[in-house]
Each structure stands twice: as structure tokens, then as C-alpha cells.
Amino acid sequence: MNAVDELDRRLTDAGFRGAVRIEQGADVLIDRAYGEDGAGVPFTTGTASQIASISKSFTAACALLLVDEARLAFDDRLVAFLDARPAAWNDITIRHLLTHTSGLVHWGDVPGHDHYSPCPRDELIAKFAAAPLLFEPGSSWSYSSPGFVLLAHVVETISGESYPVFLRENVLEPLGLRRTAADDTPPGGPAAHGSRGGEPVPSFDLAVNVGTGDVWSTTGDLIRWPTALASCESLSAATRGAAQSRQTPTTRDIPGIEDVGYGFGWFTATLDGAPMIFHSGDNAGFVSLLVWLPDEELRLAMLAPDEINLGELAFPALARLLRAT
What is the tens place of the pLDDT at every residue in 234-270? Predict the structure, then answer.
């Protein structure tokens, strides 16, 4: 039994609900959907799902477009784009936001934060500012979703457009990602309902999660994203390369994965010695995983309307595929 067949068997035996697509070069190794979503609707390979924190790679791409257009610079200070300017944030730069080196906290340390309720942007930023920085900007690494909310805010401030509109017009449409959208479900097919242990759960307010967990996509669109970005003609070759290259070490420990770093909206690592670019995500009722091993032209996209660990299923299968090539 080859690695793909073994993964298919494991997913079936485990009662996996969602979709998986693996490609190597021009070959589709598997493109399957399993089970039902949180509303009992059969999940299909064309079902759009919340990709959660993989959304950060799209936000980073929007910021990089503005950098290449000289409308934004990596060393610009965040406070230049804010009405309220917390003194503790004076040294936070765009580079710090892109690489999680700002010292900003993650959601769990934002006082009074509610993922499920609307919150005006100025109030949301004030909540972020009420949490002390974890460290001096640039001196360490700590994953921060609020940092990418602020990055989306910067994109909106510079462009004069809402983030979902800017993303659609400048990234998604030029790259032909027609089943991907921010804030709302994309047109042209079904969209999943989230669940936890098979029971339906309410969705996060995706407007509050702007730039950090607000994108919907399908496995077919998502698997094209890392290579589409790597060849995106709207970005310079240097900027494209920087986005998916290690910019800083991280404290992230993932079984089976070594040397985990972070680029601009992407994790970098090695799997069985092979360079890997990836990101995962989890929202209420949804999880996602996107992996690209460029040297082997191997790509994986997994989406599930559930709250499970996709890496435990995917990374061993990818390692076996690597050993077989």
C-alpha cells in the first residue's frame, strides 16, 4: 500500500470529515472528500471552508504588494497608520507584524475579547493596546493574530478600500482563485458549516478576524496558492522569495518537523531534510493545513469542518511520499 492509499485508509477508518488534495508536479495523487459538515450536508471537493490562520498568508501578500509599489516599507512604524498611537507600540514596524516579532499578544491575552460578536475596529485596536507587550519589538518571536488584524488595517488605510475588496481585486482575481474570498463565503459552490465532535458550532465573527482568520477557500484553490504566489507577476522576484523564506526562528514545536521558522505569513521548516513551506489554521468548527515542498513539487491541502489535528494525519503521509520518490 502506497503512502496516499494509506492516508486515504486512515482518514476513512478515523471517520474523517472534510477534503484532502495532494499533487506532485502536474499529477493529482488524491482529491477526495469525506463525510458531512456540521449541518449534516455531504462535504465535497468543491466545498468552501474557513481556512482560519492560513488567511495570514493572503494578508502578507497584500502588504507585500504595497511594499513593491513603494506605498509601504518594511521599516514603517505601525503607529503611523493609527489614529490612537499607544506609546508602547512606537517601535513596532510592518516587518515585526509580518513575522510575529512585534511582542503583541495572541487572542487569549486580549482583555475582554469575544470572537463571536462584532466589534468596531477602533475598539478592537484599543483592546489590543490594553495588553502589555510580551517583549521589546524585534527581540523575540511569539505568534500573534492581533498583529495580522493590524496589518489588514494598514492595508485598508493605505488603499482606501476594505480588506476583502483589496484582496479580491489585487490578489484573488489576478491569480484566478475564484473559490476563495475574505469575510464572506465565495460564490460558485457550497460552503461548509463548522462543527466540534460532530455537533454544529457558531462561527467566529470573521470581520473581527480580518486579516488573520477570515478567508474561505476550497482544496482546489488552496493547493494552487503557494505556487501561484511564488510566480505572481505583480510582485518582484525578491519580494516573492522573501515571503516564503525564513525571516526569523520560532518557538513552534511540531512533531516530525524540524527547524521551524517564519517568513512573511508562512512557516518554513524541513520534513525529512526537505525544505517545506506551510501554514495551518483553526477557527471555531474548522481546521486547515497547506503544505508545499518545492524541491519535490509536492503540495497538500486539507480542510475539515471539525476541530482536529490535521498535521498528525498529513505529515507522516508526506514523509512516506518523500521516501518513495
Answer: 899 999 999 999 999 999 999 889 999 999 999 999 9
Beta strands in the chain (DSSP E): 18-24, 27-34, 49-50, 181-182, 195-196, 199-200, 215-217, 248-249, 258-262, 267-271, 274-283, 286-293, 298-304
CB-based contacts of 175, cutoff 8 Å, min separation 6: 224, 225, 228, 229, 232
**pTM for the complete prediction?**
0.97
Separation CA 241–CA 313 (nearest Å): 29
For residue range 119-146, list pLDDT tens digits in order: 999 999 999 999 999 999 999 999 999 9
Residues sharing a CB contact under 8 Å with residue 114, sequence separation 6 or more, in sequence order = none
Span 85-104, average pLDDT: 97
Q: What is the DSSP string of 119-174?
A: --HHHHHHHHHHSPPSSSTTSS----HHHHHHHHHHHHHHHSS-HHHHHIIIIIHH
Identify the three-state secondary structure at position 101.
Answer: coil
Compute the distance between CA of residue 207 and CA of residue 213 in angstroms, rounded to an integer. Answer: 9
